[in-house]
Amino acid sequence: MAARLQPAAAVAGGVLIVGALAAARRPPLALAGLVALAILAPFLIVPVRIGAQPPVIAVLLALLIAASAVAVVRGSRALPRDRILIVQGVYLLLILLATGIALPVSGDVEALQTGLKLSMAAAVPLLVVMWLPRASIARHGQLVIVGAGAVQAVLAVGLHLAGDAGIRFLSALSPAGYPASEIQRYLPDQVTPRATGLLVDPNVLGVTLAMVLPFAMVGCTESARRFALQAAAIGLIAAALMLTLSRGAWVGAAVAGVVVIASTRPRLGAGLALAGALGLVVPWPGGLGEAIRAAVVQRDLSDALRLGELQEATRVIGRYPWFGVGYGASPDADMFVGVSNTWLWIAERAGVLAAATALGVVVATVLRAVRSIGSDPLARACVAGLAALLAASMVDHHLASFQHLAVLGGALLGATLVVVRRSA
């Protein structure tokens, strides 16, 4: 591959080969690699075209699902009997059903591919519960998540500060699947740049780092050496988060931080939550406080567009309430499909029941785990990560529309269920 392909494509091929071998022989290791890939470089594609060039992460996920199915048939693994996972299975089936119902009308092959990729991502919580014991998650999970998040943060800050040189570097990754056009992202003023790292979109980078942040925060309370490493990771992640200029990610990270602190120091957590709320409500005369308040709550062009999206979403869901419109373009010329809210996006695409099951799984998992966060640091990090997901999901649809973010959220759900079940 190194001799025949461009360097970026050769790296993608190497990742694919190593991941495929791990999926066949060591599924737990492949799952850890899948999470790291979702955080670091989810847009790598298969370097050789055989009819199509799917993302490496989609191929690895398909291989993991196949390996798990073989293990169940052979009797070496059993399907977990958990009511939350059963509801997650219903969500998976609803995605497939919505995709199948919409396909004869639209004939959109890309919509079919999107539906299949998102349905595979919905299987991730089940895979995590099947293959990863609590000991493995405790020993290696934090290292994988925080390590990959810190590397992504370094790349995001470095590429952002590099300016044109960073843009040229990202363009050089196009043979590996990285989008080569419109790489630089700006605020609506089209002047202020935003950090994207290797995740294409600043909001995608922001929500990823917001879910990673609590795992770094929880690790700060162990040894002095661990404290230094984790504190450095927190600083890098916080810097990259600020450079994304993603308000949803900022709120998600703040919620995650408050959850981590309040779980062991309730009064301090309540004070921080109150201070944050006052900081958004009370007008400040100048400085950083005013800048942050303006960035989070000030009405601008993007706010106006999102209000219109919410109004249009009610029309779409009212017309297609049960199975949605599928994962392609709008079936009606008088409707726009697309909204900056994860659960409304799911309702538009797969129906109200799919949205209710997806949201219900996250909420039920948090409620099950919240009793353990005071005594279990790992449960604390997982719940805080899910809290960041929930907060960001209210103003962002990427958690449901991007396969790698759905994989990351699913892995977090599965890990939380394992941690809580083993610690109960």
Describe this entry's structure for a reader.
This protein has 424 residues and is mainly alpha-helical. Helix content is 71%, strand content 1%. It is built from 19 helices and 2 strands. A two-stranded antiparallel ribbon has the order 1-2. Strand 1 (185-186) and strand 2 form a beta hairpin. Helix 4 (83-106) packs antiparallel against helix 16 (352-369) and helix 5 runs parallel beside helix 19. It is globular. It starts with 6 loop residues before the first helix and ends with a helix. The mean pLDDT is 86.
**How many H/I helices?**
19
- Compressed to H and E, one letter per element, the order equals HHHHHHHHEEHHHHHHHHHHH
The share of residues in helices is over 70%
Low-confidence stretches: none
Shape: globular
**Number of β-strand runs:** 2
Record the strand order, biggest sheet: 1-2
Mean pLDDT across all residues, rounded?
Answer: 86
Radius of gyration: 21 Å
Share of residues in strands: under 5%
- Profile the largest sheet: 2 strands, antiparallel
Intertermini distance = 48 Å
Class computed from helices, strands and strand pairing: mainly alpha
